[in-house]
Each structure stands twice: as structure tokens, then as C-alpha cells.
């Protein structure tokens, strides 16, 4: 009996160890792919930079197309924004049976909203616009750094990223209670994107903010950003939910995001920020800047003009004329948009450079007239604002410093090493070490930092000798069972108490017998999703992989060793994954220990047989740059209809293929157009475009 018990114990330990190893490998796949996708933002900025630097429009049609790429909309002044988004002009039909709001809001309104959203009902656009209008008025009165005290409530609850996952918010309120005078909440940014119910989360949070303005506090996250929303689904989802008034709602939300506070200070001892800090973080500067100027804090690289020592900051991949103080669009009929003059030949670089500066300056002057900004008035205080390119003064370092302060607290991540370095993985912010944390805590007499921004398997994680706490509240972030969500409660002693959860309706309905096999079933499901995403990533780099494999195949046998396969794959994808450990899931075992790499790549390509008629190089580029393409298409689709014309689609691919230095024939692009236009109406539905090129079918 004793020997049997020992054998069972050994077997169980090996079983648990294998499960843990599989879980960690799956986690690394998801996280590596997510962070690699963050770099797509840089690629998009480089794409716009390329257009500004090298592309010479050959016709007025191409000039108009590029103008739309750089100037996605016109700007609103304060009064024009309120007029454009006038909720009183929106009528509520008698047939509407959803929740209704009247101001000032009462707790009963919040309860009614929660029940309505649980029943999958929607709030009418009139009430949404009215709520956003009142929220904006309230946020404008708040400081950049809000102060919370545990003296006025029993405890303060801090929640991390929610990312449009309404079930997680419901579960938090169920476990912890609704906001009230005795229960304060701090929601630490990233309310939207990725999940399908971002708008509902905003409505609930804004409602409680107005009901309990002293107990509910909202910080801005890196996803409360217009350019990020274009990429990660919030804009498209909002238009799909509310097509008639969606554009007005989107503009108001964009403006509300600009007014969200940047940080929260609990009892003057705990700093709550979304991302992190850097070695230059200064709370005094953060407390004084005009936060509403930062429509989007993302930017591309800095570049120098060919014959001037002037650094021109790339701004969100947009024209320097795009952003305004309110960060919104106005009717284009207010002032006619200037048409660029005929572009000179690329053979004369100096003349072409001058033409670019003149064209951009004309756009700047046009946007200034739209918002009634005279030359004597100060310019915007951000990198996502109007920057003059005609003089040689260069960027104002004060403005750059303010921009960097905001960028760092929204995008930075901690690292175990000492020091502070650029966050090349995400493309924004920095990595900060324990020494940087210690200096900030000592400088401002703080006990520790609370941040979010990173998904953690257990929902929370300490680092830097327990001086930095990461809290993440979106459970099942990558896949059902991939991670827990968590929130942290702080009392007057400021000792953190954690509550973990997993909003999984499927698990709640399982029997006891089924629950016993749940860990293995969930790991298998998460594993399947992770490897599906990884195979898509591999297929997207087919050409580069072939070149890397051939470097090891000196005799052109079509075979390489499995060790060389692992080395070559990492050299191309740069994901930092344990490829030798992952190999059994990706490569079939071979008797001689050699891999026929062309057959292996053909197997990856076979998973989308329906697209065989499309040029192979085009299909590969689509997969590799799908996020970039979606963002560009959202910019081109100015009326947010989800449709673009064949001509716009063709022009996009001409520019994109020139930037990527890929030869794509007109016939190849035309074949792509015909395959996507399912209803043959002469327009392309971009949602169907993405669906048409999924690497594998969704799991049944």
C-alpha cells in the first residue's frame, strides 16, 4: 500500500508538472504574439512616413487619396462639438423599450442599466450622447492626478484592464458590491477594445462616475486613444452597434477620453497609473499639463529632412494638421480644403522636399482656419498636434517632455534589470527597473505603485521587491481558461487584499465529474487557440522562412535538421519562444530527424484552400500586415460605413505594395477584389475582407 501511494504521488506530480509546462508554453505563445502585434503600430507610422518622404502622386486622384490618408477629418471647436453631438435633436421612438436616463442620475438609473445590459438590451443613442455630454463636463473639472482617501470609505478597490469584457465587470460588482459612499473604486484604464461590449462598460462606468463623483475614479489607459481604437476594434464595433448615430457617439467618446485623469493617488502613498514610469517621470509636470491636448500619444520615429538639421516628429502616422484642442471633426464645408500643387519629379530631391513641406503647410493653415487659430495663438502642446514645418526651430523640447511624460505612464512596463530603456516590444514607453521605482517612491514619499497594462496568469503580480503591483481584471483574456482576473482592495493600512475570479459561464454549468477534468480540457482548448495563432504567424512569414531554411540547406536537398529548423524559425519571427519544446505540436516526427521544409510550409498553406486563386505573395502580405491594413481602411472609410470603393482599395494596395517593395500585379489585386465582393455591389465590406482571410476556421 505504501509503494502504491508513492507511485500514485509520483505520477500525480509528473502530471501536474506537465500541465504546468504546457500552460507556461501556451502563455508564452500568446504573450509573444500580442507584443509582436504591438509593433505593427510602428509599421503603420513608417508606412505614412514613407508616403510623405517618397511617394510622388501621379494624378489628382492619387493626391486626393493621400490627403485622405493624412487628414482623416476636420476639427471642431468647443461649441461646434456640442452642436454636432446635440442629443436633444435625437428622438426616442415610442417603440423603444430599453432603459431611460434623466439627469441628475440616481442609483436606480445605474441598477436599471445593469439589468438591461444583462438582458442584452441597448441604451438609445440619445441617452448615450446625453451621458457623454454630462461626463465630459464633469471630467473637465478634475485635476490630472486625482486624490482618494480611505478615511471617507471603508476601502478603495482598484480594478485593472477590462477590455470590453462586461461579464468581468458584472462579476466584480457581484463579489465586491456596487459603488457607493462607503465603497470607492478606481478603474485603471483600458476599458475598451478587444472585447465586444466596450460601449456598455463605458456607459456603466460613466453612470457611476456621475452618481458618485467622489467615490468612482477613472484613469486613462493606452487604449483610451483614437489611433489605438482604430486598430483594436472599438471604433468598428461602435459603428456596427449604432450605425445611425455612431459617428456622433464616437466623436464624443474620443473627446471624453482626452479628459480622463492620468493618475490617482491614494492617501498620498499609493500611486495608481495605467502603464508605469520612467527615469524622467515628474508628477509635477503631469499635474500641470493640458491633458485634453493628447488626442493620441502614439507617434512614429523621428526623421531629419535631407538638407536641414530639423527633426520632424512623425505624429500618429497622420498629418501634423490632424489634431486640434477638441480632437474632433467638423463639417468640411466650413472652409474648402486646399488642393496640393503638381508634385515635382523625384529626380530633384531638394525640389521634392520643398514641395512636401509646402503641401503640408497648406494643410496646416487650412486646419487652423477650421478651428479659428491665428498665427499669434500658441500651438498644440502634443506630438499629435499641429507642428509647423516651415521654420528651422525644431520641436519645442518642453512640449516633447510633456508628451513623453504621458507616453511613459500609459505605455511603460517594469523589468527585473536595473535602469531604464526604450520599450521596443510595444513601440511606446519604456522598460523601468527596480532602481527607477525606488527613486520615484523616495522622491514623492510613496509606499508602492499600482499599474495594469499587462495580462497576468493569476490576475495580479508583484515585482521590484513588492514595490510595483500589476493588476489585470479581464479574465480569459486570450482564450477561455487562459488567465484569471483580479482586483485589489486597500484599507486605511494600505495592505493589499486580492480577489481572483474567472468569468466563465461554461465552467459554471459543468457537473462535478466534468469539473474534475476541467484543467486538462481548458489547457487543451487554450493550447489549440495558441498554436492556431502561431501557425498563422508562421504562414505570414513563408518567404522569409524559406530563405532562412535554405541558408542551412547548403546542398539544396529540401531538408534541414530539426535543430536548424528551430534556430531558423526564431531568427525570422523573433518571438523568443522555446521552439524545440513546441516542435512536436508544429512539425510531424520524422524517422531520419530531418524536415522537408517545403512540404511543411505547404501544409500550412493548405489550410486555406479557398484562396488558391489569389497571388501567393499577396496572400502572405495580407496575413503579415492585417492589423495595419485594417487601420488604414478605417481611416479611408471616412463615413464609417464599413465599405470602401474598388478604386480606393486598388489605390491602397498600390501604395502598400510600393512601401513593402513587393511586386503585385493588377490582375492579382483584381482577383482579390472579385473574391471579396460577395454581394457584387461594387464595394468592399472590410469585415468580410478579414473573414475571408482567416487562416483556420473558428473552433466549433
TrEMBL record:
InterPro entries associated with the record: Calcineurin-like_PHP, EF-hand-dom_pair, EF_Hand_1_Ca_BS, EF_hand_dom, Metallo-depent_PP-like, PPP_dom, PPP_phosphatase, Ser/Thr-Pase_EF-hand_contain
Cofactor dependence: Mn(2+)
Gene Ontology BP terms: detection of stimulus involved in sensory perception; negative regulation of MAPK cascade; visual perception
Family, as annotated: Belongs to the PPP phosphatase family.
SUPFAM superfamilies (UniProt xref): EF-hand, Metallo-dependent phosphatases
A molecular function (GO) term: protein serine/threonine phosphatase activity
Function text: May play a role in phototransduction. May dephosphorylate photoactivated rhodopsin. May function as a calcium sensing regulator of ionic currents, energy production or synaptic transmission.
Enzyme class: hydrolase
Region (Disordered): 308-345
Domain EF-hand: 540-575, 624-659, 664-699
UniProt EC number: 3.1.3.16
SMART domains linked to this entry: EFh, PP2Ac
PANTHER family: SERINE/THREONINE-PROTEIN PHOSPHATASE 5-RELATED, SERINE_THREONINE-PROTEIN PHOSPHATASE WITH EF-HANDS 2
Coiled-coil intervals: none
Known catalytic reactions: O-phospho-L-seryl-[protein] + H2O = L-seryl-[protein] + phosphate; O-phospho-L-threonyl-[protein] + H2O = L-threonyl-[protein] + phosphate
Species name: Bucorvus abyssinicus (Northern ground-hornbill)
Keywords of the record: Calcium, Hydrolase, Manganese, Metal-binding, Protein phosphatase, Repeat, Sensory transduction, Vision
Protein name as catalogued: Serine/threonine-protein phosphatase
Pfam families: EF-hand_7 (PF13499), Metallophos (PF00149), PPP5 (PF08321)
